[in-house]
Every structure is written in structure tokens, then in C-alpha cells.
Design a protein that fits this description.
Blueprint: H1 7-18, E1 22-25, H2 29-34, H3 41-55, E2 61-64, H4 66-70, H5 73-89, E3 93-100, H6 104-115, E4 125-128, H7 138-147, E5 150-156, H8 163-166, E6 172-174, E7 184-187, H9 191-202, E8 210-214, E9 231-234, H10 243-249, E10 257-261, H11 263-266, H12 272-289
Parallel strand pairs: 1-2, 1-10, 2-3, 3-4, 4-5, 5-8, 8-9, 9-10
Antiparallel strand pairs: 6-7
Helix pairs in contact: 3-5, 3-12, 6-7
The chain binds orotidine-5'-monophosphate (OMP).
């Protein structure tokens, strides 16, 4: 599918029409069980079809969690391909939650899979990990901007284990002018802040290709004031974050804030109408809370 518009343009128009909520399609084994579906690729297919019926046209974005499809091998991937393509052709944006990250030459292959025109898994955006170095993501960022897609780069994740690594201080040093060749620390930003800063620098081309992932589960401690791209904020619902937390934590970054909720909506299935009502309720709460 070819796109006349940049990712930033398509995202703004989708959230202008249907709000900022991103709903996850996360076919956990426990949800399959709760919905009376088998723990097989067929079960995942039935689960995904129900989600598509409930969410398409109601929310701006959906985020299939690739791990739950991958668990069923090629049959699971076939379901994922069909899900991505049916959602996208209905005009709802798809963020593939694949969290890819590797050395640049391999990253180029991942980029082709998720962001390349004509790929069976091509989505509107993909999640990526910058922890092999932000620059390792360059092939994905380049392809995304060429094909009018987005990349959501992990900055501060929602899980409790992330803080030690992501909050660690980087010592940026400057040797010039220091006495006796000593280096003097000029600043010490956190690892997560350095990801934000790299994203800001990359988005200077005005395309909003780089989005960030910042968990909604706690104060992120980041300076997001220079970042105007989209921020995917998982953690709403099952991980304990509330809409009131969003307004507080992201007080200065509301325009393209995309809160994600998965289990807290999905627990209302398998009834399509109950699922749809739950998604609409959270979508409207988010819009009211971030107004
Ligand atoms: O990239 C993500 O979406 C993500 C990043 C993060 O920091 N935390 C996080 O929970 N996620 C994903 O967001 C979804 C959250 O699901 P729930 O906790 O069920 O709402 C899961 O698919 C996670 O893999």
C-alpha cells in the first residue's frame, strides 16, 4: 500500500478523528482460555477477528503484540499478517509491537519486514529497542521516513526492572581545555534521556518518524520539552496506571501522547459489543483527561 502522506500526518488525522488511545491485541494464553478459545493458532485467529471487529473504526491505533502470535510459529505469523492487513485496509493504524533491535546490517532486514512497502508484515509503525546504540536503528529510521511509517523507540519502559539500566547516568565528557589532560564531566544525562535527545535530533527533519515509548506507570524523570513526536505510553489499566496519572506524568506532552491499554480492555471479551464499549469508554476517558 502506498501512502501519500507522512506518518506524522496520518497519525494526526487518525487521532483527530478517533482519539489518542491505542488498544493492544495481546492474545495471552489466559485470555484465550477466558474467551473459551483453544491455545492454538486457530484460537489466536478467532481472538484477533473479534478484536478487529470491536476496535476498527473506534480507536485510532491498535497494537498487536507480536510475541503472542510468534508463539504459534508460522501459523501464528499467518494470523498476524492477516490481522495487520485487515486493520490497515480499514483505515486503522497498526503499531506492530515487535521490539526489534540489532546491529545495523541486521536491523535493515528487520526494518524491511515491518516497514517495507510490499512486506507481508508491513505495519504503520513498529517498536524498537535502542539498547544496541541509537545509531543501530538508523536503517529502520531511514526506511520509515522513506515509506511514511514510524518507529517507536524504547526510552523509559513501564516495567520495574527497567529503571536501573535506563536511569543510569552517562558521563559525557569533554577533554579540551581541561588541566593535565583530565576529562571533566560536563553533564550526566540518563541513558533514557540520551534516547530522547537522539530522537529530538532525528526528528529535526519534521517528519515525526521517531516516536518514543515511555511507560505511564511512574514519573519518567525525562525532559520531554524538546520532543514533539508521538509518545506511546503503555501501562494504563493492568499495570496500574490511571488516566489521572497520564495527565500528571505527561503534563507537557499531550498532543501526540498515545496511551496503550491491552488486558484491561481485552478482559471484557469475547463479546464484541462489550469489548467495543470498553475501548470506547477508555478512549473517551483519555480524551477528557488530556483535554
Ligand atoms: O512497547 C510496548 O508497547 C511496551 C513497552 C513498555 O514499556 N511496557 C509495555 O507494557 N509494553 C507493551 O504494552 C502492552 C501492555 O499490556 P497491558 O499491561 O495488558 O495493558 C504489552 O503488549 C507490553 O508488551
Amino acid at each position: 500500500m502506498s501512502h501519500g502522506h507522512s506518518w506524522g500526518h496520518r497519525l494526526r488525522s487518525a487521532i483527530g478523528a478517533r482519539g489518542r488511545l491505542c488498544v493492544g491485541i495481546d492474545p495471552h494464553p489466559s485470555l484465550l482460555q477466558a474467551w473459551g478459545l483453544p491455545e492454538t493458532a486457530e484460537g489466536v485467529e478467532a481472538f484477533s477477528e473479534i478484536c478487529v471487529e470491536a476496535f476498527v473504526g473506534e480507536v485510532a491505533l491498535v497494537k498487536p503484540q507480536v510475541a503472542f502470535f510468534e508463539a504459534y510459529g508460522s501459523a501464528g505469523y499467518a494470523v498476524l499478517e492477516r490481522t495487520i492487513s485487515v486493520v490497515r485496509s480499514a483505515g486503522t493504524l497498526v503499531v506492530a509491537d515487535a521490539k526489534r533491535g540489532d546491529i545495523g546490517s541486521t536491523m535493515a532486514a528487520y526494518a524491511q519486514s515491518w516497514l517495507g512497502d510490499g512486506s507481508p508484515l508491513a505495519s504503520d509503525a513498529v517498536t524498537a529497542s535502542p539498547y544496541l546504540g541509537f545509531g543501530s536503528l538508523d536503517p529502520a529510521l531511514a526506511l520509515a521516513s522513506e515509506t511514511g511509517r514510524g518507529v517507536f523507540v524504547l526510552a523509559r519502559t513501564s516495567n520495574p526492572e527497567g529503571g536501573r539500566l535506563q536511569g543510569a547516568r552517562l558521563s559525557e565528557t569533554s577533554g579540551s581545555g581541561a588541566p593535565d589532560g583530565e576529562v571533566s564531566a560536563v553533564q550526566a544525562v540518563s541513558v533514557a534521556q540520551s534516547v530522547v535527545d537522539d530522537a529530538v535530533a532525528h526528528n529535526r527533519d519534521g517528519r515525526d518518524t521517531v516516536g518514543l515509548v515511555v511507560g505511564a506507570t511512574r514519573g519518567h524523570g525525562l525532559d520531554l520539552s524538546e520532543f514533539s513526536g508521538p509518545i506511546l505510553a503503555p501501562g494504563l489499566g493492568a499495570q496500574g496506571a490511571t488516566v489521572a496519572d497520564l495527565a500528571e506524568i505527561f503534563y507537557d506532552s499531550r498532543e501526540l501522547l498515545l496511551p496503550n491499554t491491552s488486558r484491561d480492555v481485552l478482559r471484557h471479551g469475547p463479546s464484541v459489543s462489550a469489548l467495543r464499549a470498553a475501548a470506547e469508554r477508555v478512549r473517551d476517558e483519555v480524551e477528557a483527561g488530556l483535554a
